[in-house]
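Re: that chain you flagged

S.,

Sorry for the slow reply, it's been a week of failed gels. I finally had a moment to sit down with the sequence you sent. For the record, here it is as I used it:
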Amino acid sequence: MMTLFVSKGTHTIKFGGVAERMLLNIRALSDPSGIWRFPDVEGFFTNQPSKFQGGIASTLTPRNLRQTLFGLYLQDDWRWKSNLNTESGAALRDDHCADRKRR
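Prediction finished late last night. Pasting the structure tokens below so you have them in one place:
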């Protein structure tokens, strides 16, 4: 993030912006080896699971999520008197999510 400001008389003008690129490289929401659940310790040691959850190997593709964030702002601080100050400003923000790309 970058912020610049200019003071002139009773006004202080601040403006700035941000650009942020976010990357998330993940595989599918399932563990390729599966998730085994056992009812208790005895079930674990006797190899008697109560539930198995797994994905088909061909469906475990990379998701490679991408997102870019842009933002701009402008703010004016106006000191009318030593004990009276007003602030006004505007902000613009845009999120862009790229389509999921598969490699």
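What I noticed first: The chain is about 5% helix and 55% strand.

Talk soon,
D.
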